[in-house]
Design a protein that fits this description.
TIM Barrel; single chain; two-stranded antiparallel ribbon; binds iron/sulfur cluster; alpha/beta; 190 residues; 23% strand; six-stranded mixed beta sheet
Protein backbone atom coordinates (compact mmCIF):
# COMPACT_ATOMS: atom_id res chain seq x y z
CA UNK A 1 0.00 0.00 0.00
CA UNK A 2 0.98 3.64 -0.32
CA UNK A 3 0.67 5.92 2.71
CA UNK A 4 2.27 9.34 2.68
CA UNK A 5 1.87 10.51 6.24
CA UNK A 6 0.34 9.81 9.62
CA UNK A 7 -0.28 12.59 12.14
CA UNK A 8 -1.56 12.82 15.72
CA UNK A 9 -3.38 14.56 17.38
CA UNK A 10 -5.60 15.77 14.55
CA UNK A 11 -8.74 17.50 15.86
CA UNK A 12 -10.03 19.19 12.70
CA UNK A 13 -10.96 16.06 10.70
CA UNK A 14 -13.43 14.40 13.03
CA UNK A 15 -14.30 14.28 16.75
CA UNK A 16 -11.61 14.05 19.40
CA UNK A 17 -7.88 13.54 19.12
CA UNK A 18 -7.46 11.39 16.05
CA UNK A 19 -4.77 9.71 14.06
CA UNK A 20 -5.11 10.98 10.50
CA UNK A 21 -3.63 8.83 7.75
CA UNK A 22 -3.01 10.18 4.24
CA UNK A 23 -3.11 7.57 1.49
CA UNK A 24 -1.16 8.33 -1.68
CA UNK A 25 -2.79 7.96 -5.09
CA UNK A 26 -5.80 9.61 -6.69
CA UNK A 27 -6.61 9.86 -10.41
CA UNK A 28 -9.37 12.48 -10.15
CA UNK A 29 -7.28 15.65 -10.29
CA UNK A 30 -10.02 17.82 -8.75
CA UNK A 31 -9.21 21.51 -9.36
CA UNK A 32 -8.35 23.07 -6.01
CA UNK A 33 -7.44 19.75 -4.32
CA UNK A 34 -5.42 20.70 -1.26
CA UNK A 35 -3.12 17.66 -1.55
CA UNK A 36 -2.04 17.37 -5.22
CA UNK A 37 1.34 16.07 -4.05
CA UNK A 38 -0.53 12.89 -3.07
CA UNK A 39 -2.05 12.17 -6.49
CA UNK A 40 0.97 10.07 -7.44
CA UNK A 41 1.91 6.83 -5.67
CA UNK A 42 5.55 7.63 -5.08
CA UNK A 43 7.71 4.60 -4.21
CA UNK A 44 8.87 6.36 -1.06
CA UNK A 45 5.33 6.03 0.27
CA UNK A 46 5.18 2.24 -0.18
CA UNK A 47 4.43 0.44 3.09
CA UNK A 48 2.15 -2.23 4.54
CA UNK A 49 -0.95 -2.17 6.76
CA UNK A 50 1.11 -3.94 9.43
CA UNK A 51 3.77 -1.21 9.39
CA UNK A 52 1.16 1.53 9.68
CA UNK A 53 -0.52 -0.36 12.53
CA UNK A 54 2.84 -0.56 14.33
CA UNK A 55 3.19 3.22 14.09
CA UNK A 56 -0.29 3.58 15.55
CA UNK A 57 0.59 1.18 18.37
CA UNK A 58 3.50 3.46 19.33
CA UNK A 59 1.15 6.44 19.52
CA UNK A 60 -1.42 4.42 21.48
CA UNK A 61 1.23 3.44 24.03
CA UNK A 62 1.45 7.08 25.15
CA UNK A 63 -1.77 8.76 24.02
CA UNK A 64 -5.49 8.20 23.91
CA UNK A 65 -6.72 7.76 20.34
CA UNK A 66 -10.33 8.88 19.86
CA UNK A 67 -10.57 7.81 16.24
CA UNK A 68 -8.95 7.52 12.83
CA UNK A 69 -9.42 9.64 9.73
CA UNK A 70 -8.37 8.15 6.42
CA UNK A 71 -7.83 10.71 3.71
CA UNK A 72 -5.41 11.36 0.90
CA UNK A 73 -5.27 10.82 -2.00
CA UNK A 74 -8.19 8.43 -2.06
CA UNK A 75 -8.09 5.60 0.49
CA UNK A 76 -10.70 3.68 -1.52
CA UNK A 77 -8.24 3.37 -4.39
CA UNK A 78 -6.47 0.91 -2.10
CA UNK A 79 -9.59 -0.80 -0.84
CA UNK A 80 -8.13 -4.17 0.19
CA UNK A 81 -5.24 -2.62 2.11
CA UNK A 82 -7.64 -0.12 3.68
CA UNK A 83 -9.83 -2.98 4.91
CA UNK A 84 -6.81 -4.81 6.29
CA UNK A 85 -5.60 -1.67 8.07
CA UNK A 86 -9.03 -0.97 9.57
CA UNK A 87 -9.12 -4.49 10.99
CA UNK A 88 -5.68 -4.00 12.54
CA UNK A 89 -6.70 -0.66 14.06
CA UNK A 90 -9.92 -1.87 15.66
CA UNK A 91 -8.33 -2.49 19.11
CA UNK A 92 -7.51 1.22 19.38
CA UNK A 93 -10.76 2.84 18.23
CA UNK A 94 -13.80 1.85 16.19
CA UNK A 95 -14.38 5.43 15.06
CA UNK A 96 -13.06 5.20 11.50
CA UNK A 97 -13.85 8.13 9.20
CA UNK A 98 -12.96 7.69 5.53
CA UNK A 99 -12.86 10.36 2.81
CA UNK A 100 -13.24 9.22 -0.77
CA UNK A 101 -13.79 10.74 -4.19
CA UNK A 102 -16.17 7.89 -5.07
CA UNK A 103 -19.90 8.24 -4.57
CA UNK A 104 -21.33 5.99 -1.88
CA UNK A 105 -23.43 4.17 -4.51
CA UNK A 106 -20.25 3.12 -6.33
CA UNK A 107 -18.78 1.43 -3.27
CA UNK A 108 -19.15 -2.01 -1.79
CA UNK A 109 -17.73 -3.61 1.36
CA UNK A 110 -17.42 -0.81 3.88
CA UNK A 111 -16.71 -3.23 6.73
CA UNK A 112 -15.44 -1.48 9.83
CA UNK A 113 -16.05 2.04 8.52
CA UNK A 114 -17.98 4.23 10.97
CA UNK A 115 -18.38 7.33 8.82
CA UNK A 116 -17.85 8.06 5.14
CA UNK A 117 -17.59 11.39 3.35
CA UNK A 118 -18.07 10.78 -0.35
CA UNK A 119 -17.69 12.54 -3.65
CA UNK A 120 -15.08 14.49 -5.56
CA UNK A 121 -14.07 17.96 -4.41
CA UNK A 122 -15.75 20.87 -6.25
CA UNK A 123 -14.04 24.11 -5.38
CA UNK A 124 -17.01 26.26 -6.46
CA UNK A 125 -19.16 24.41 -3.89
CA UNK A 126 -16.75 24.85 -0.99
CA UNK A 127 -18.69 26.66 1.77
CA UNK A 128 -15.94 26.12 4.37
CA UNK A 129 -18.19 23.62 6.19
CA UNK A 130 -16.72 21.49 9.00
CA UNK A 131 -15.68 18.07 7.67
CA UNK A 132 -17.21 18.67 4.22
CA UNK A 133 -14.97 19.92 1.38
CA UNK A 134 -17.81 20.89 -0.96
CA UNK A 135 -21.60 20.80 -0.90
CA UNK A 136 -21.88 17.75 -3.19
CA UNK A 137 -20.15 15.61 -0.58
CA UNK A 138 -22.24 13.67 1.93
CA UNK A 139 -21.53 12.35 5.41
CA UNK A 140 -22.79 8.80 5.98
CA UNK A 141 -22.83 7.37 9.49
CA UNK A 142 -23.00 3.60 9.72
CA UNK A 143 -22.85 3.20 13.50
CA UNK A 144 -25.63 4.74 15.58
CA UNK A 145 -23.35 4.78 18.64
CA UNK A 146 -21.40 7.66 17.05
CA UNK A 147 -24.34 9.75 15.84
CA UNK A 148 -24.40 12.21 18.76
CA UNK A 149 -20.64 12.57 18.66
CA UNK A 150 -20.62 13.52 14.98
CA UNK A 151 -23.67 15.76 15.33
CA UNK A 152 -21.97 17.76 18.09
CA UNK A 153 -18.64 17.95 16.35
CA UNK A 154 -19.27 21.00 14.08
CA UNK A 155 -20.36 23.03 17.14
CA UNK A 156 -17.16 22.11 19.00
CA UNK A 157 -15.14 23.28 15.99
CA UNK A 158 -17.01 26.60 15.93
CA UNK A 159 -15.49 27.38 19.35
CA UNK A 160 -11.95 26.46 18.25
CA UNK A 161 -9.41 29.17 17.44
CA UNK A 162 -9.04 27.82 13.90
CA UNK A 163 -10.45 24.90 11.87
CA UNK A 164 -6.93 24.38 10.50
CA UNK A 165 -3.99 22.73 12.26
CA UNK A 166 -0.37 23.08 11.24
CA UNK A 167 2.15 20.27 11.62
CA UNK A 168 5.77 19.84 10.68
CA UNK A 169 6.68 16.45 9.23
CA UNK A 170 9.38 14.92 7.06
CA UNK A 171 7.39 16.36 4.11
CA UNK A 172 7.79 19.86 5.56
CA UNK A 173 4.94 22.09 6.66
CA UNK A 174 1.53 20.36 6.58
CA UNK A 175 -1.69 22.35 6.87
CA UNK A 176 -4.54 20.05 7.98
CA UNK A 177 -8.30 20.64 7.83
CA UNK A 178 -11.01 21.82 5.46
CA UNK A 179 -9.43 24.77 3.70
CA UNK A 180 -11.10 27.79 2.20
CA UNK A 181 -11.56 27.81 -1.59
CA UNK A 182 -8.42 28.77 -3.49
CA UNK A 183 -6.26 27.73 -0.51
CA UNK A 184 -3.79 25.96 -2.77
CA UNK A 185 -3.28 28.91 -5.14
CA UNK A 186 -2.76 31.23 -2.20
CA UNK A 187 -0.28 28.77 -0.69
CA UNK A 188 1.68 28.57 -3.95
CA UNK A 189 1.85 32.37 -4.20
CA UNK A 190 3.18 32.80 -0.65
S1 LIG B 1 -10.73 13.14 -4.84
FE1 LIG B 1 -9.76 14.22 -3.12
S2 LIG B 1 -7.58 13.66 -3.22
FE2 LIG B 1 -8.49 13.14 -5.21
S3 LIG B 1 -8.08 14.95 -6.49
FE3 LIG B 1 -10.14 15.16 -5.61
S4 LIG B 1 -9.83 16.38 -3.74
FE4 LIG B 1 -7.80 15.57 -4.34
Amino acid sequence: MFVARLLYPVTVLGPGKRVAIWFAGCPRRCPGCSNPELWHQSERYRTTPETVAMMVAKIAAEHKIDGFTMTGGDPMMQHDDLMRLIALLSPYSRDILVYTGYRYEELSDLTGITALIDGEYREEENRFTPLIGSDNQRLFLFDEAYRVRYRRYPKSLAGAPSPIQNFTSSDGHISVGIHRPRFLRQRLKS
